[in-house]
Amino acid sequence: MTQPRHPLNPATVLLATTALMATPAVAADPDATAEFVTRVHQAIRSKVDSANQRELKVLRGNDGWMFFVPELRTLSVGPFWGRHAQRVSRANNKRYADPLEPIVDFHSQLKAAGIRLLVVPVPAKCCIYPEQLDRKFTPRSSDTKTTGPPPRLDIHQQTFHEMLKRRGVEVVDLLPSFLAQRNDRRGPLYCKTDTHWSGRGAALAAATILANLDDPAWLKKLPRLNSASLTTPVSITGDLARMLNPDKPTPETLPLTFLGKPNNRRRPVPTPISRNSPVLVTGDSHTLVFHDPTLHAAGAGLPDHIAAGLGIPVDLVGVRGSGATATRISLLRRRDNLKGKKLVIWCFSIREYTESFSGWRKVPVIRSR
Questions:
Q1: For residue 24, what pLDDT is reported?
Q2: Which of 2, 54, 70, 176 could form a disulfide with 355 if both were Cys (CB 3.0 to 4.6 A apart)?
Q3: Which residue, 31, 43, 225, is CA-closest to 137?
């Protein structure tokens, strides 16, 4: 093991810093931009209604892209908290429709235990590549008076995240860096045929998260791992492709960056998950894709990039399906009050806000003795 001079992997932090400093879209006419976003929302709502009538879960886009209907729905329903929650939530029990207080409660529990929480909502694929869903979603200069990436479509999620921040919750906004890097020459940030981000998206998400850490003192005291990386193309069969055509799903090939212990120019040996790590990555299947070998690959997912960037192993509690309540129940079942943890990274798709059937419950993860 080696001890690098900087507590965070400099190359990893540079990736996110460069993205965050990239020139965003500049609107000369905010009213025109708002009107454009409203039109896109209305069009998405129409597509969702039509898909639901035909009992479709997947919509074909352009150039081989596929989109998950529940994710599109969460963009189209408007505000999803407070008095709006029960109207728009898919939760089976409407008592658990509103995500606001359960998220704030989890933050409060961790803060009282001296643990920092970063909430990392994963933007919808359509927010980064709207033109791949519908060519009409490409803003013309006469629509928005913009240059650069398309305007943000996640206006209600933005409002919700600002509410969380006012309650003290740290929210890592991935969307600016994703929009800045959406045309990355190394490949798109989302899989075309899968509900998840691509390997490039996972890497950029990790870099953006690490750029928000501000050199924590506890990390500087830890011995560091020497991590290697290898980027290679991998063929996958995405879940959307399987839903759309179970008999003959369309595969896709994308680059994955594998990380871990150096292995003589072959794929690095993945860093094992450590229950004793001070860093916990938790959430839905975005924490598992390319990490769990049953989700396309091992050693190239979000936990692997976080571990390589920090130079230490991480702990992981990821669940397939909803990351809203199930992950916190899993933490409760550990019965250890997250002893030894300094940082929790809670990562989940924004569709969780409205599409989780189990909803949002308060869970006493940290129990008083």
A1: 45
A2: 70
A3: 43
Residue 65 in contact with residue 72, Cβ under 8 Å? no
| Domain membership flag for residue 369 | no
Domain that holds residue 44: 10-355
Return the SS3 of 317.
strand
Site of tokens 């869903």: 133
d(CA 314, CA 96): 30
- How confident is the model over 251-277, as pLDDT tens digits? 999 999 999 999 987 899 999 999 999
Which residue has tokens 């806000």? 353
- Contact in structure between 74 and 355 (CB atoms under 8 Å): yes
**Distance separating alpha carbons of residues 258 and 308, to the nearest angstrom:** 10
Question: Encoding tokens for residue 176?
Answer: 């600016």
In a domain, 230, yes or no: yes
The tally of domains found in the chain comes to 1
Which two tokens mark 58? 């997947």
Say if 268 falls within a structural domain: yes
Q: Where are the strands (E) in the chain, listed by range?
A: 58-60, 66-68, 116-122, 170-171, 228-236, 252-260, 279-283, 315-318, 343-349
| β-pairing verdict for 170-171 and 228-236 | unpaired
Rounded alpha-carbon distances, angstroms, from residue 301 to 203, 225, 269, 297, 318: 8, 18, 13, 8, 12
